[in-house]
Task: structure prediction
Amino acid sequence: MLICLFASVLSIHAQTVTKVRHTKAAKADVVTTGTLTIRKPSYVCISTDNDRDQLIMDGTQFTMTMGGKKHVTDSRKNPQFATFQSVLQAVINGKAIPAGEDLTVTTKNGQQTITITPTGKQRRQMFTSFVLVVDAKTSAFKLLRMNDRSGGYMEYTFKNGK
Result:
């Protein structure tokens, strides 16, 4: 009971997640499971494969650990992640999705699909686009897909809404 009280005070909630890693070079996709943890106002952690792979947004800092390699960026220096951060924070905090030239929002069948595609010259970006699908009423995450330059992607499917 104390844990539940503590979690509600910090506005923490978790969802189960299935991650699919697709690459053109591999014959079969790699599928792992884990958890999504969200803590208001600006912390998101997606952890899969027994915490070996993680995607963390902590304020303006994004850390991705994948296959033992750690990639870190800060949204104050990376426009693509600045847009991604503003979208995630809006969804987490139940606010309107901010407008931007590099994002589109569509609503269909009770879900919002938010697509972030950087405009202009984007050198050295790990991802060519992000697609986030959330429940339009509850803002629960449904799907996050991050498309890479080689035509592959990482797709996270979330269950057990907020």
In short: The radius of gyration is 16 Å. Confidence is low (pLDDT under 50) at residues 1-11. The chain is about 15% helix and 50% strand.
